[in-house]
Amino acid sequence: MDTTRIAVVTGANRGIGRAIATRLLSDGYTVAGIHRSGELPEGAHSYRADLTDSESVTTAFDAIREDLGPIGVLVANAGITKDGLLARMSEEDFAAVIDTNLTGAFRCVKAASKDMMRARYGRIVLISSVVATYGGFGQVNYAAAKSGLIGMARSIARELGGRGITANVIAPGFVTTDMTAELPEKIAADYLARIPAGRFAAPEEIAAAVSFLASEEAGYVNGTLLNVDGGLGMGH
Questions:
Q1: Where is the Ketoreductase domain (predicted)?
Q2: What is the pTM for the complete model shown?
Q3: What percent of the chain has pLDDT over 90?
Q4: Across-strand partners of 10?
Q5: Count of CB atoms within 10 A of residue 63's CB?
Q6: Long-range contacts: 57-61, Cβ < 8 Å, 24+?
Q7: How far apart are CA 47 and CA 35, in angstroms?
Q8: Active site members
Q9: What SS3 class is residue 236?
Q10: What is the set of domains in the chain, with CATH numbers?
Q11: Average pLDDT of the residues in 194-217
Q12: What CA–CA distance (Å, rounded) separates 227 from 234?
């Protein structure tokens, strides 16, 4: 089996993660989805794990390695929101978002990078958000976690770039998913008015960007932040 074609996608059971898993399957990858609930796209291999639990993550990656082989691609997509105004946000809600969205990604990268270093090949794609650089009302925790992914990827790129491993970040804007469907109507309309494209993205448009960064053709793209936001953030 070609180990460069084994891809792990976290949060692959819905929304952007599901679209990414579906796209990578169509690209010919063997896809392992790590998730806590729900079902994966047909053809993807299912592994349950809690990204806030190091042992759970290690167990899942060990199982993937044993069942499918060494991992060549990691897409760290899983995330949660616990929005609230700064004055009302609890430390627990701040810490929970950081632990899942940022530290959870770190746990997955650390587990997957072992195979990549041995193979001297790897593609790491971290799914951030436009709010990482744009900011988000009531999203101090979420923005902090998502901006942290940028520094993480660039540090990984410097550490591992000489071994044929790339680490890049995609920052989606507003995407039509269950998560954005929960936005209050006024806030959704306000953001829509600011997007030059005049619409929210489809999950498949984020998946297309992942497809490129995961490919062999993207071997000289490293440490980059790719905004897929319809022009909302204007590259900031």
A1: 5-178
A2: 0.95
A3: 89
A4: 34
A5: 16
A6: 57/104, 57/107, 57/108, 57/111, 58/107, 58/111, 60/34, 61/8, 61/108, 61/111, 61/112
A7: 7
A8: 142
A9: coil
A10: 3-228 (3.40.50.720)
A11: 96
A12: 8
